[in-house]
Amino acid sequence: MEVAVRVESSRRVAEAIFFLKSIGSQIMTVETSEHVALNVIEDKATCLRIDSVRSTTEAGSGHPTSCASAAEIMSVLFYSVMRYDPHDPHNRDSDVFVLSKGHAAPILYAAWAEAGAFPRERLLTLRKIDSDLEGHPTTLLPFVDVATGSLGQGLSVGVGMATHAKQFDHSDQRIFVLMGDGESAEGSIWEAAQWASLHKLSNLCAVIDINRLGQSQPTTLQWELEIYKARWEAFGWQALLVDGHSIPDLLGAFEAAARVIDRPTIVLARTLKGKGLIGIEGLEGWHGKALDKPTAAKVIAELESQLSGADEDWKPHLPVTLRSSSQTTAKSDTSSGENPPYVIGGEEVATRKGFADGLAALANTDPRVVVLDGDVMNSTYTEEFKKAAPDRFLEGYIAEQNIIGMAMGLAVRGKVPFASLFSCFVTRAYDFIRLAAISQLNLKIVGTHCGVSIGEDGPTQMGLEDLAMSCAQPDFTVLYPADATSAWKATVIIAEKSGPCYLRLGRPKSAILYDPGEQFAIGKCKVLRKSGKDSALVVAGGVTVFEALAAYDRLQRDGIAIRVIDLFSVQPIDRDELIASAHAANGYCDHR
Amino acid sequence: MEVAVRVESSRRVAEAIFFLKSIGSQIMTVETSEHVALNVIEDKATCLRIDSVRSTTEAGSGHPTSCASAAEIMSVLFYSVMRYDPHDPHNRDSDVFVLSKGHAAPILYAAWAEAGAFPRERLLTLRKIDSDLEGHPTTLLPFVDVATGSLGQGLSVGVGMATHAKQFDHSDQRIFVLMGDGESAEGSIWEAAQWASLHKLSNLCAVIDINRLGQSQPTTLQWELEIYKARWEAFGWQALLVDGHSIPDLLGAFEAAARVIDRPTIVLARTLKGKGLIGIEGLEGWHGKALDKPTAAKVIAELESQLSGADEDWKPHLPVTLRSSSQTTAKSDTSSGENPPYVIGGEEVATRKGFADGLAALANTDPRVVVLDGDVMNSTYTEEFKKAAPDRFLEGYIAEQNIIGMAMGLAVRGKVPFASLFSCFVTRAYDFIRLAAISQLNLKIVGTHCGVSIGEDGPTQMGLEDLAMSCAQPDFTVLYPADATSAWKATVIIAEKSGPCYLRLGRPKSAILYDPGEQFAIGKCKVLRKSGKDSALVVAGGVTVFEALAAYDRLQRDGIAIRVIDLFSVQPIDRDELIASAHAANGYCDHR
Lengths: 592, 592
Fold this sequence. Notes:
- The structure is a homodimer.
- Chain A is α/β, with parallel strands linked by helices.
- Chain A has 20 helices and 19 strands.
- In chain A, the strands form five sheets. A seven-stranded mixed beta sheet of chain A has the order 10-9-11-12-14-13-19, sandwiched between helices. A five-stranded parallel beta sheet of chain A has the order 3-4-5-7-6, sandwiched between helices. In chain A, strands 16-18-17 form a three-stranded mixed beta sheet, sandwiched between helices.
- In chain A, helix 14 (400-412) runs parallel beside helix 16.
């Protein structure tokens, strides 16, 4: 059978092709009836350049040349390709744009203003201390899902979002990620590339703005587009070379991206840094520099002269379907009903096992929970969750940065991702964790095999800096349970707590300290031993709680009483109880 | 001109080809007269398997199957290809082997024992608490240059070493790195791959032991060797597919690696996990598991039956040249003569500028100093060093993990590498920094643009966790100078201090606090304001010193005296002065 296809929305093309192919058809031609006049897109690109220059010059700093190279890419995406509602950017059916090259923030802000999200005048508040239009995008802005500006993170976030749309929300949402060429040297890019092609994320389309110039010099590959192409194709992507300032080229590439059904697409766009900024185009030494006012005036006048004055009656292309909620998965309300099965005086159980059992229980009660593994599921026991909810278990392999980046993308879309790793390897993704914290994303990082108690595997396998790492981040909840019961409860607690959390877990089996019904809370410790005549306070966490209890027993025999606390919540810390206990143990010194 | 070449050492082949090509010759045939009998190499591979099983079974833990897949690779490298002195592994002319897949430690130990570095009996101390044969290799062992076991780091370390041999030591040393297939999912691999091909490191040869199985499941690419090949070739490497258990195949590949002169080589070795371990070969579920004693006995008996009993009179192939010292560059003794040029009351200068000026001064006085940049040299001012010593300036582009990994490799070879980055992006390489600290390598990490004082670039560009990160590492020196003079001095101090150091620097210009002749020391603070009636002690660092001094002035007007300390050395901290000052300011509480 041969079919000539004509569909109203380019959005439906890939779907139609897929269906027709599945019934044995051969696709001959594909056309769509949607288009925006080219000169409208061109004018909008020029406006984006003008706004980028104007706002950075007003601020006296910023990256106008990194914006200018991307003007046509942004214009084509925002005013022709993407389907979204500028007034409801989180809508689950809207296409998503991630500006991985976060230093091009001014053109991101200009694009949303031009789309009607907020008044253009506000662009002139860029980089002011009381403005949410910061030097690099943050989630203070409704249209920014994750903070960017540490390069090489946006693609992994996009992979998480694309996975959500394809695997969990079954939406035809498309995810676009704009990267710089300098940032494509970051290894995390290739972790994301690998995962995206393995999972055939055809709803993901990334663009590299190949303007040849980094901050301080030309990039490694400069304009060697064929090498870029060979690399991305070797990683399983559809790779398309385009002139990044040609609107028809870009439109064609995004059309081709929408039609491929078995792989993600990378658009390799050859551009000029500072394109359109007269006297600055393609020059070195102009990264991260605002134009002075006379230069800006000249540049803007030249840009304004290029405007065609085309009919500006542009309207956003809304998604075909528009479902109301951006929260795609509701939590069931049954999650707190269950209790862990461990018994005081019973078998010893590792805290990692307590976590995994709690997580497996959540598999049934909280459909928001998704687990990401770094090829350690048989040591962290998250294989139990995989058995219970295989569709919500994502194997991230040995690529921790991409795992955390995907978790960031999933968190943005309303999932509660648990990224489960050996604690020592959490260090690999610290820069991602930093941006997750700045964005206050609802992701959960679980580090097992912490501390020296892992023993004979040696120091490279010991997670010793994980507490310093996580506690140094703003508003990060950090729990360190001592036994399997509290680990089970901590798992449920962090699933319910909104915001970034870190759960620290040990490898060895240990005794059960708490009854199944014991209540735990963030910010609350447990006083395990106390008397009216305590002469010292010992605050312990995890495996050290058992050492503290052993010390208590030993000292008891000599008639010395000490107070022993199981800290449980490292951040926030139980300040009141600690001060009160220290007072009681005669050890608190208050100079106020 | 046409030449038939016959040379005595395969080591000289690439050199001869290079020379002959440079005079316009065409190379027709290349032969070498060196060889080891195949059955000797085969027997040694079998012995390595036996020792790996024996030691892990004795320990009751470890990774025998990950050793077994690599037995022929190790045997060919250690007993035919590499030129080294087992009793002087650090010799600058010895070939270098980096076991990036650190969990295969037992076969590394077996290989060195078999080569004569230590008695084979000691292998049975594997993983014992008082043995230096730890579960993953550490630098306690003379033949281990860097600790490994966090996957995906060895290649960058090898890149640093290969760069040293090629660019600084002009030696014909070759660097071999053995990776696992699971670890090749780490993005850092591709950062290293990119740099190595850009710099045509033909003295670098990496091997991937493609045994198809990760820890908890098959790897992403399993045995899709053509995809591996396409990726590595796209990254500019010579990629060779071999049967990893065929000794002739492996010999041929290493020969081909030695002959290529314009690129590094990757040997993609298809192997079987657990190869030769009867009943376990190629099975899932056997990662990181020791065989029980009866199984081990059966496996060892089978292996022993395969020994040909070939003449065991094997001798190590020593390097052609053998220079005595492993310290390849001596420090000049003139570095401390100079002082910084800044004047109290003179122009304001940023601490990053003080660092860069100090570094540029070191360019002339300390030939060990090498600078690595992450495309920020125009903001960190390390471009000054580049001008002074262009051959010792390495541009690492936006790939922080590889930058720190290369610095590790350079430090091993006696250089004093300064890796200079924005402090916020140091987070990207935290796992590498962790292993550098465990290895106590002599590398210097410099983080500029720290703290909120960078201002309008926004929170993603603010390095706020760098102190927590660096101070959480063992024996890491951490300095945080307040003015350009102390930053200049701190730079010289850490260049002279052996071991890992972190230098924290700010972006804004600030006043000069210290005379050029002021002396600074690790572990020593500066008391800037004191009196006999101080009612508070303010300890400040970096930009906050100026705020503390302003507070001092303000309080002086109200007749309140405070003591102000510029901490300078964050780790180690000046415990004695802080306690004494706290006492003097009536604020120290000692319950001892």
